[in-house]
Design goal:
This protein is mainly α. It is built from twelve helices and seven strands.
Length: 329
């Protein structure tokens, strides 16, 4: 570009430059320079206005731009506040409304809305009858339709893409080398999901394929999480239809033998959670170890944050969704 301007100047041409950084060599070379990095389209309107003014076709030019300088910044803030109120704040409340319908199901089937305490060693403390099961499926069908509309709005919005595309990138190689798990890993095209092992009820699924994305950025992580909600609804509906009648618990007695060990892995919303226990011949365990998904993903988070803009830090952390409290345990 610099060479092109030099050639134009050598030929006697006057050069008008749209250059955002006023201190660059290119900016110093042009005859006229328009620098307004906050809005590409506004620069072209400003130039057109100036041409009209110079041609005697814009008598109110000085008054117009005096008002623009006086009010543009304030008016943009007001527009942003309005957009927050009727746009993404409204979307947040719609999601919260759908969440309440899920919490209603929790309360009806477990007695609690957040802290459920329904699982115990050997089974569960209460059963779900056919009527309740049918209600669960019906509510989920209703949620699915509403949620799909919200999801499509979120994933196609230009503002969302501007804040998330190419931000906080993690390659597939880094995801594998750092042993990342959950949606964080799957958004970097690493198809690791404990549910694929087919343990327990997941072995009864007709088919299960982890949801992945190839982009490895914040947008990919948002997309994977969004699609996993729909996948979870379908898993619940399929298993609800296949759940057999019968006892809801088995008696568990005795104490773990000296040196007896047990381990298991479970796919949590943030990824693989690993459990390890060792007995010592008494009712008290010798050791109980829980490795949470966040402990696996912290190394990847540091890579995603490396070299990013300060304004992107919050977005990167939110799309990785670390749980610091459970990791500190």
């Amino acid at each position: 570009m610099v060479d092109a301007v030099k050639k134009a100047k050598a030929a006697g041409a006057k050069v008008l430059g749209f250059i955002d950084v006023e201190t660059t060599e290119l900016a110093r070379m042009v005859d006229w320079e328009i620098a307004y990095p906050a809005n590409e389209q506004l620069k072209f309107f400003m130039v057109a206005d100036r041409f009209l003014y110079r041609h005697g076709e814009f008598d109110e030019y000085d008054v117009y731009y005096a008002q623009l300088d006086a009010h543009l910044a304030r008016d943009l803030v007001e527009v942003e506040k309005a957009a927050d109120a009727f746009g993404f704040e409204a979307m947040f409340m719609h999601c919260w409304r759908l969440r309440e319908r899920v919490l209603d199901l929790f309360e009806k089937t477990t007695g609690g809305r957040v802290i459920l305490s329904v699982v115990k060693v050997g089974g569960v403390v209460r059963d779900i009858d056919a009527t309740q099961m049918a209600e669960i499926v019906s509510v989920l069908d209703g949620i699915k339709d509403d949620y799909t509309k919200i999801m499509n709005t979120l994933l196609t919005d230009t503002s969302v893409k501007n804040r998330t595309v190419d931000v906080g990138y993690i390659s597939t190689e880094d995801a594998r080398a750092l042993s990342m798990v959950g949606p964080f890993a799957r958004a970097s095209n690493l198809p690791y999901d404990v549910r694929s092992f087919g343990k327990g009820a997941y072995g009864d699924l007709a088919d299960f394929q982890p949801i992945t994305a190839t982009e490895g950025d914040c947008y990919a992580r948002v997309k994977v999480r969004c699609l996993e909600v729909l996948q979870s609804i379908e898993i619940i509906k399929e298993l609800a239809a296949k759940m057999p009648a019968g006892p809801i618990e088995v008696a568990v007695k005795g104490t773990p033998a000296e040196g007896a060990e047990a381990s298991n892995v479970l796919e949590q919303p943030r990824g693989e959670c690993y459990y390890y226990a060792r007995g010592n011949g008494t009712k008290n365990l010798e050791r109980m170890r829980i490795r949470t998904p966040t402990s696996q993903n912290l190394a990847g988070m540091t890579v995603a944050l490396k070299g990013c803009d300060l304004a992107d830090v919050n977005m990167i952390i939110l799309t990785i969704d670390p749980c610091i409290s459970c990791t500190e345990r």
